[in-house]
Amino acid sequence: MLLPQEIIRKKRDGGTLEPEEIEAFIRSFAGKHVGGAQIAAFAMAVFFRGMNTKECAALTRAMMQSGQVLDWSKQDLGGPVLDKHSTGGVGDNVSLVLAPAIAACGGFVPMISGRGLGHTGGTLDKLEAIPGYATKPDPARLLRTLRAAGCAIIGQTAELAPADARFYAVRDITATVESIPLITASILSKKLAAGLDGLVMDVKSGSGAFMPTFQGAQELARSIVDVATRAGLPAVALITDMDQPLASAAGNALETAHAIAHLTGARREPRLQALVVALGAEMLLLGGLARDLADGRARIEDALASGKAAAHFARMVAALGGASDLIERPEAILPQAHIITPLLAPRDGFVTRLATREIGLCVVALGGGRASAKGVIDPSVGLTGLPSRGQYVTKGEPLAFIHASSEAKATHAASLLRDAITLGEAAPTDTAPVLARLVASPD
């Protein structure tokens, strides 16, 4: 018998764990045969000693196998099963546009998404701003939704990678969340359990990112791509810019409305469009739905321009309990804040800096994010009309609009937002949305 304490001791002392040792440990704590103290000790040992790719792949597989593993091959969907995962940011509503665009191109996207925590927004929170939308459908409804719409953006169920849920709860309170091997295994165990044919990672870098430095983002992207490939899941990673909000809106209902406007063509902002097209092209190439990246980009652009992506989004929302006419009248269906007030530019100048993390925290202060994992959010609040870096504004022009539930919260948010936007005399050099592309390392 492999004793948990001996496995912890070996990693604590810098040893390399064998796959059977990792599997035994995960089986033990998934079955609740080990307590929180031993899970915490294991996490801390990995945090300080690290894991090589082989160890991380074994940890990923063990957590994947702790629960249900979906097998779409038996469902005869008629296309590849693909997904995208982002490390989180501010104004990042890519998933709401990308998933239906992939569906319009013949892919199937059972996207298991998460909630926001800290300054970052969560895709599930955006979708739960839609009245009636079910983020945890039963398997039969999930399958019906995929057949009807080609995409279903939902939350993690208790059956998928349950070991990860228990592991993360311990990591969250023991200062071990930032371990790259543990982040990698956490993300990929859920994606492998979802039965994917291909995964594209969107790893953010910049002031609003979980990994603010390019070097840290590159290390995480490399780990995820290499471990995914070793575990049998074709994967590519893009490192993308999060030194400014991706969209001009931040907040749950507001970002959902923004995504709908993008899908319908009512408003398409260049940075969001560029990232959706870049990620979509990678997904189509992985799934064999495009000849090359240029062909993939053209197909995603056509899915958006033709309205096909919007139609798939509407079918997904309706199949999961939301209003069938959401894209025609989002303003009548999505919740609205009681107070909408502008933040005016104090002077003429170019927007030289957007403190993206602080902008995200401004949304949290309004009630649009969680201070803890179990916090309750107000889906109606947030920011719209956010400027982009390099934009020229004149004194008295709105820099953004604050959507709040009270005058006091609007005033507090205005103070935070004013400090997060810097104006200068000269336009800064713009940064492309996609900073780098990583594929699997050769063996």
Category by helix and strand content: alpha/beta
Query: How do the strands line up in the largest sheet?
Result: 1-4-5-12
Major sheet description: 4 strands, mixed
Count every beta strand, where a strand is a DSSP E run of 2 or more residues: 12
For the record, what CATH class of the largest domain applies? Alpha Beta
Number of domains: 3
In CATH, the architecture of the largest domain is: 3-Layer(aba) Sandwich
Oligomer: single chain
Considering DSSP H and I runs of 4 or more, what fraction of the residues is helical? 40-55%
- Beta-strand content estimate: 5-15%
N- to C-terminal distance: 33 Å
Apparent shape: globular
Q: Tally the helices: what do you get? A: 17
Named CATH topology of the largest domain: Pyrimidine Nucleoside Phosphorylase, Chain A, domain 2
Q: Name the CATH homologous superfamily of the largest domain.
A: Nucleoside phosphorylase/phosphoribosyltransferase catalytic domain
Give unreliable regions as ranges.
Answer: none
If you average the pLDDT, what whole number results? Answer: 93
SSE string: HHHHEHEHHEHHEHEHHHHHEEHEEEHEE
Indicate the radius of gyration in whole angstroms. Answer: 22 Å
In words, what does this structure look like?
The chain has 443 residues and is an alpha/beta fold. The chain folds into three domains: 4-50, Up-down Bundle (Transferase, Pyrimidine Nucleoside Phosphorylase, Chain A, domain 3); 72-158 and 190-329, Nucleoside phosphorylase/phosphoribosyltransferase catalytic domain (Pyrimidine Nucleoside Phosphorylase, Chain A, domain 2), CATH 3.40.1030.10; 335-424, Pyrimidine nucleoside phosphorylase-like, C-terminal domain (Aldehyde Oxidoreductase, domain 3). 46% of the residues lie in helices and 14% in strands. The protein has 17 helices and twelve strands. It has a four-stranded mixed beta sheet, with helices on both faces. Strand 4 (198-205), helix 10 and strand 5 (235-241) form a beta-alpha-beta unit. The longest helix is centred in the middle third of the chain and has 17 residues, at 214-230. The chain is globular, with a radius of gyration of 22 Å. 54% of the residues are buried. The model has no long low-confidence stretch (mean pLDDT 93).
